[in-house]
Amino acid sequence: MKIRQLSLFLENRPGQLRFPCKVLGDAGIDILTMSLADTAQFGILRLVVKEWQRAREVLEAAGVVVNVTEVLAVDVPDRPGGLAGVLEAFEKAGVGVEYMYAFASRERGRHATLLFRLEDPDRAAKLLEAAGVKLVPSDELFARSGA
Description:
Layout: E1 2-11, H1 18-26, E2 31-38, E3 42-49, H2 52-61, E4 66-77, H3 82-93, E5 97-103, E6 111-118, H4 121-130, H5 138-145
Antiparallel strand pairs: 1-3, 1-4, 2-3, 4-6, 5-6
């Protein structure tokens, strides 16, 4: 159920975002989704690729600092209030959200897929499944993106 996410620390100056994208592109690795959070001096680029181990290797070989973390992919009903309902299940299960971002999918209309970083992904997965939240396994997630 868990998805491996790569986190890269980038200096906040021109060209820093392009560099890892070019490294991955030159290696033939497709970025399936990403999120960029910034402060005044640096940013954290979070991204998901199908071949996360190879991506980490090519990025580290290029001098990029890479951290691997686990996130959960969750289907959210694509209607007004859909996210609120899923977050209510999180709340009732006692699961706190560190951050989340969208996963770009070719499937549209029935649900949206969001990636959640949670304190204890294994425990959260069990609680959320018991609460009826639809978790998306990595093979299904990658198939949805065409990867």
